[in-house]
Amino acid sequence: MQYIMKNSILLLLINVLFWSCGTDEQEFDATGTFEADEVIISSEASGKVLSFEIEEGQILSVNQQIGYVDTTQLFLSRRQLEAQVQAVLSRKPDVAPQLAALRQQLKAATNEQARVQNLLQSDAATPKQLDDLNAEIEITKGHITALKNSLNNSIKSLDSEIGPLQTQILQVDDLINKSLIVNPLSGTVLSKYAEAHEQVSNGQPLYRIADLSEITLKAYVTGDQFAKVRLNQQVNVFTDDGDGDFKETKGTIYWISEKAEFTPKSIQTRNERANKVYAIKIKVVNDGSYKIGMYGEVTFGQEI
Questions:
Q1: Model's pTM, two decimal places?
Q2: Which of 83, 148, 207, 227 yields a CA-CA distance of 20 to 30 A from 180?
Q3: What's the start-to-end Cα distance of the chain, in Å?
């Protein structure tokens, strides 16, 4: 009798342990992998990379200068263009000195005109003298106008030569600025494709970067779940904590596919018999523990 009781108690304990293990298994509504918006940064200049100070895994900030491409030839081109501009400017006429003599001549003739007019009133001069002075004044004014127009035309012609040179200088400046390797967005360097002292060409990839401060879990739901998920919905995200348990955090659905696709081979949904599923993207704040390609599980916090 004692033996039977001992066996019954042992069997009961085994059943309790078996039931406890069975009920601890977590059931998830969807499964997916983490991804991020990766950006490939390419060279905007051609030449030898003189400096390229980044490493894979390094965190970069916006507008951080991380290197530059050789600009020697661009610098020399700019100096040559500047010399051409100065050569054109040296041919530019100085209007004031060239008009000074004619204006002095006009002033003298105007003064003489006033003197002759006074003499004419006292019959000390003839009308012909006044007419000659009037004619001289008009001729001098005409010379001044003609010379002024000629000088202005020369200045405009030279300005038209300077304009394209100044545009070329701006183009060279733009190429020099593009020779600086400046990081355009905050993020973590995922891959590095070039090294200092290598020759690169315009458009050649230099490195790949992604902002991992927020990471995306791309998961899949079946057709019966699809009707009940919504944008901005809060969900629970689970990942393996490395100790046989799960790490839990909150996520937000920010994208829902409107087109069904066949279930990816690496993804298991709650209803494994479903041939087609819908993709959803869940934004998760990354504390540094979530990596691209890591698996994640999702529960929606409600019966779906």
A1: 0.69
A2: 83
A3: 51
